[in-house]
Amino acid sequence: MGEWYLFKDLLKPESERFGSPVQKVLDPEEADFFYVPFFSSLSLIVNPARPASGSDKPLYSDEENQVALIEWLEEQVYWKRNNGRDHVIMASDPNAFYKVIDKVKYSVLLVCDFGRLKEDQGSLVKDVIVPYTHRINTYRAISVLILHGQSGGKIRDLLFQLLENEEDVIIKHGTQSREGRRAASHGMHTSKFCLNPAGDTPSACRLFDSIVSLCVPVIVSDSIELPFEDVIDYRKIAIFLESNAALKPEFLVSMLRGITTERILEYQKELNEVKCYFQYGVPNGTVNEIWRQVAQKLPFIKLSINRDRRLVKRDLNARDCSCLCSNQTGIITSL
Questions:
Q1: pLDDT tens profile 265-291
Q2: What CATH code is carried by the domain that includes residue 231?
Q3: 22 within a domain of the structure (yes/no)
Q4: According to the per-residue pLDDT averaged within each range, which of 237-251, 258-272, 311-325 is highest?
Q5: Which of 115, 151, 235, 267 could form a disulfide with 216 if both were Cys (CB 3.0 to 4.6 A apart)?
Q6: What span, in angstroms and rounded, lies between the C-alpha atoms of 249 and 313?
Q7: Same domain for 89 and 10
Q8: CA–CA dist 105, 109 (Å, integer)
């Protein structure tokens, strides 16, 4: 999980953090940002859906830990100083912090997409889009189209129905088991194109699996946000289709069959050039790029903090904006 790689990076001596755009400090007065090392995705995943039959062991509650974290943060002088605006929080799982997201919405959130966030909770202005950690080893793609993933999501299910009987189309339903990952790896490593439809959220880990497999992503997701778009031109590594067009009978496969071998090799060459941005475990890879993206938020965070101190406090019943994008006025709460 990305949260582990970031935490592990911060535990290293500075001499081992090769090429990092951020530097650790011991004096909080010197800090521009405060990283909150809460493993939100892991906490969510290990939370049991129901108690085991006959088990006397106490249940782990993700909700209780979310609340406990907020209670602890709100007691910290540096959180209270700027209402958490200069704090960085990893929330890559779509449901991470679902119970307390309003309490951390002013912070710099590291998220994979905005699928579960409201407009006043997430923003490209203050937050950073990060990639899911891939579960498939890097390899070179060579042959066919594959649809990978569990069922779920309207577009994904409709595409399954549309493509299941098409010649040259291989459909694999992935699972989190070792055998499931092995099957997905084989499929992506032997495919020219990997279909990436929207599921219950706009993005999913299969997109980043396909990138490191050098399998050209075919993205069918109208609301997707992508990591590191200031340095990556995704048109060079992926094919984008609107949902309505992709769902037309015979359109998708016909379009892909029309792409020449030379063009596919161009896509794969570009994929090979940028795949390091999606590899958390390699030196100067995803972790350093995330820190670079966070560092770029600093001018806006300082702007937000200074404006927030200056502006008249708004009516708490009025709609708020996490990016503080307008000079709103309201009820004076303090002088």
A1: 999 999 999 999 999 988 889 999 999
A2: 3.40.50.2000
A3: yes
A4: 258-272
A5: 267
A6: 55
A7: yes
A8: 8
Average pLDDT over residues 114-135: 89
Of 96, 106, 120, 294, the residue nearest 201 (C-alpha): 96
**Residues across the chain:** 335
Contact 293, 309 (CB under 8 A): no
Separation CA 118–CA 101 (nearest Å): 10
Question: With the C-alpha atoms ordered 323, 324, 326, 330, is the resulting torsion angle positive or negative?
Answer: positive
User: Do 27 and 311 meet the contact criterion of CB atoms below 8 Å apart?
Assistant: no
**Distance (Å, whole) CA 179 – CA 185:** 10
- Three-state SS string across the chain, please? CHHHHHHHHHHCCHHHCCCCCCCCCCCHHHCCCEEECCCHHHHHHHCCCCCCCCCCCCCCCHHHHHHHHHHHHCCCHHHHHHCCCCEEEECCCCCCCCCCHHHHCCCEEEECCCCCCCCCCCCCCCCEECCCCCCCCCCCCCCEEEEECCCCCHHHHHHHHHHCCCCCEEEECCCCCHHHHHHHHHHHHCEEEEEEECCCCCCCHHHHHHHHCCCEEEEECCCCCCCCCCCCCHHHCCEECCHHHHCCCCHHHHHHHCCCHHHHHHHHHHHHHHHHHHCCCCCCCHHHHHHHHHHHCHHHHHHHHHHHHHCCCCCCCCCCCCCCCCCCCCCCCCC
Please measure the distance between the N-terminal and C-terminal CA atoms of the chain and give it in whole angstroms.
Answer: 45
CB neighbour list of residue 80: distance below 8 Å, 6 or more residues apart: 74
- pLDDT of 51: 64
Alpha-carbon span 235 to 246, nearest angstrom: 17
In a domain, 147, yes or no: no
R_g (Cα) of the chain, nearest Å: 22
| Cα–Cα–Cα angle for 94, 97, 102, rounded to 5 degrees | 110
Chain segment 95-114, per-residue pLDDT in tens: 899 999 999 999 999 999 99
CA-based nearest residue to 274, from 246, 326, 232: 232
The two three-digit tokens of residue 126, written as one number: 């203050």
Entry pTM: 0.80
Q: Is residue 143 part of a domain?
A: no
Cα gap 191→32, rounded to integer Å: 45
